[in-house]
Amino acid sequence: METGIWALVNYRSATVHIHGESQGRQVMECKKIDIVATGKNIDRLRIERGMAVTTLEEELLVSKQAVYKWIRGYNLPSIDTLVMMAKLFDVRIDDIIICKGGDSKCQ
């Protein structure tokens, strides 16, 4: 069980720093953000929940163009939007922005 995990996203260097405790041990990682994989994760999570793009834009208070830019890997959501998205999808932020090595869902 993971508790107290938090992520600091640095958009300038396209990295995420993950800190906290997981299964009783300290976790400190720095991972590169793959913008294309992030877009695929957003689209996959949206589809898995049977959510239309219009529903996603309404829930996150963004434009359809913003959603399509994320899905196509042209841009990243803001940290505020990532927080809202994580709550909406019931996942952690790093589940959205980090492609786990060998995870076929990110391919």
Structure notes:
The chain is α+β, with helices and mostly antiparallel strands. It has two domains: 1-33, no CATH class; 34-96, Orthogonal Bundle (434 Repressor (Amino-terminal Domain)), CATH 1.10.260.40. The chain is 43% helix and 23% strand. Strands 1-2-3 form a three-stranded antiparallel beta sheet. Strand 1 (2-10) and strand 2 form a beta hairpin. The two termini are 27 Å apart.
Please give a quick description of this structure.
The chain is an alpha+beta fold and 107 residues long. 43% of the residues lie in helices and 23% in strands.
N/C terminus separation = 27 Å
Radius of gyration based on Cα positions? 14 Å
User: Main sheet?
Assistant: 3 strands, antiparallel
Q: Care to count the β-strands?
A: 3
Strand order of the largest sheet: 1-2-3
- Work out the count of structural domains: 2
Assign the CATH topology of the largest domain: 434 Repressor (Amino-terminal Domain)
The share of residues in helices is 40-55%
The CATH architecture category of the largest domain equals: Orthogonal Bundle
**What is the name of the CATH superfamily of the largest domain?**
lambda repressor-like DNA-binding domains
Low-pLDDT parts are 1-6
Number of helices: 5
CATH class of the largest domain: Mainly Alpha
Strand content: 15-25%
Order of helices and strands: EEEHHHHH
Provide the residue-averaged pLDDT: 78
Please state the overall shape, judged from the principal axes of the Cα atoms. Answer: globular
* Oligomeric description of these chains: single chain
Class inferred from helices and paired strands: alpha+beta
